[in-house]
Amino acid sequence: MKKIGLIGGITWQSTQLYYQLLNTKVAEVLGGQSSCSCIIESVNFADISAKQAAGDWDTLHQQMTEIAVRLEKAGADIILVCANTMHLSVPAIKEAINVPLLHIAEVAGAVVKEKGSQKVLLLGTKYTMELDFYKDVLQKQFAIDVIIPNEQDREIVHSIIYTELAKGIITEKSKQQYLEIIKKAEKDGVDAVILGCTEIPLLIQQDDCDVLIIDTTKEHAFAAVKFALD
């Protein structure tokens, strides 16, 4: 089994999902008492969040890169950034490491194409929804039509992530707000929704929606297990 290196804590709520998913999948595939070989370096999200809000991406790129290098030196055979937004740092990380980095948007794009979807709603932090780093992967590598919510709805999605989901707070009100945003997109012809924030699966699952839901946390973790066991 290859060793998976995780850059976690972005937030710890989603990192614990990764750890659970990785170990559950390995046990499912190998059986018995099997579990995942992995290393986690977890950051202080308060520091990350403050730098994001200040637009200090250069410092964040450096920080993510230094962690990835340490994980590689510790024996990681593949690197996962356990957050959609911090894939902004992927170009910098790739220049500094010699092992593969599994890009969460590439995993999501492959699942969308496998399911036969053509037009998706991308939900995530305002950085993921508004900047091009994530949409470009979906559009240019997979020819997927990507839409995002309107400005008011983007603020709702972002605020719930940072003020509630990042702290493990789950409310029915916030769930209904997300579902209303998804229903609006369905009227615009969307046939899938990418949960482009690793905390959103804490709030929204496939059973909540008629449209296809792409849980990027689960798909990212399962793709990492496939790599580790091949």
Describe this structure in words.
With 230 residues, this protein is α/β, with parallel strands linked by helices. It has two domains: 4-103 and 219-229, Rossmann fold, CATH 3.40.50; 104-215, 3-Layer(aba) Sandwich (Rossmann fold), CATH 3.40.50.1860. The chain is 53% helix and 13% strand. It contains ten helices and seven strands. The chain has a four-stranded parallel sheet, sandwiched between helices. Helix 5 (104-114) packs across helix 10 and helix 8 packs antiparallel against helix 9 (172-187). The protein starts with a strand and ends with a helix. Belongs to the aspartate/glutamate racemases family. This is Aspartate racemase.
Secondary-structure map:
Layout: E1 4-8, H1 12-30, E2 38-42, H2 45-54, H3 57-73, E3 78-81, H4 90-96, H5 104-114, E4 119-123, H6 126-130, H7 132-142, E5 145-147, H8 151-163, H9 172-187, E6 192-195, E7 212-215, H10 216-229
Parallel strand pairs: 1-2, 1-3, 4-5, 4-6, 6-7
